[in-house]
Amino acid sequence: MDTCSQKLCHSTQSPSLDDMAARVNPSKPHDMLQLSNDPEKLAIAQTNAANSPLLRLSAELRNEIYNLVLNNYSHLHNLDAPRRERVRESRNEESGNELALLRVCRQLYEETALLPFSLGPFTFHNLALFSKYLAQTLLPSQIAAITALQCPCDEIFFPRLGVYSVFLNLLAGTLTGLKDLTLMEVNVTGDRKEMGESIAESIKWKCGFEVRVELRSEGLELRSRTL
Known about the structure:
Elements: H1 3-6, H2 17-24, H3 39-51, H4 59-70, E1 74-77, H5 83-86, E2 88-90, H6 106-112, H7 115-119, E3 122-124, H8 127-136, H9 140-145, E4 148-152, E5 157-158, E6 162-163, H10 165-173, E7 180-184, H11 192-207, E8 212-215, E9 225-226
Parallel strand pairs: 1-3, 3-4, 4-7, 7-8
Antiparallel strand pairs: 1-2, 2-9, 5-6
Helix pairs in contact: 10-11
């Protein structure tokens, strides 16, 4: 089970109104959508938790379902356009609107709000535009949930100079939860494994955490649609 989803839901018991209110007003504020603490809406949430076939499943099964629904969701960023046009989502041709899951009810939102950021990779073609997107569009908790990136190799790495310092600074100061980095369009005659290890070592030395680095010769998947 993915550790990022294990943290989302643990209890298999139906929450009380006090539990629901505590979720709305946690002792430590967060920056996600603030849900209403209206007693009538809390009562609806409690009824959903008690009667919904999905919400009555164990936390482990719910997490597995969330992973199956959202695991193939990915983000593509390659435009400097107004906010609604800048973000693109990539998906299988046969898939539906995976993010509709987050809008079903209060409890599902609470349990899945960060999964689209932690399960799917973020793909970008231009480091400057991607940095701008992170700064202007995403919330801190959403950025912290990002675990995987994909980008052209020459966007962040120069064979004779190493990893671009701007990218290293972005990781060290912003993308501290990153675990996987996939570099595409790698055209090198040397040992790719050695090159990947060198990049990973640079990240570890500069940022203080380890990232798995994969190098691929093929280009980035461009099939996507605008949100």
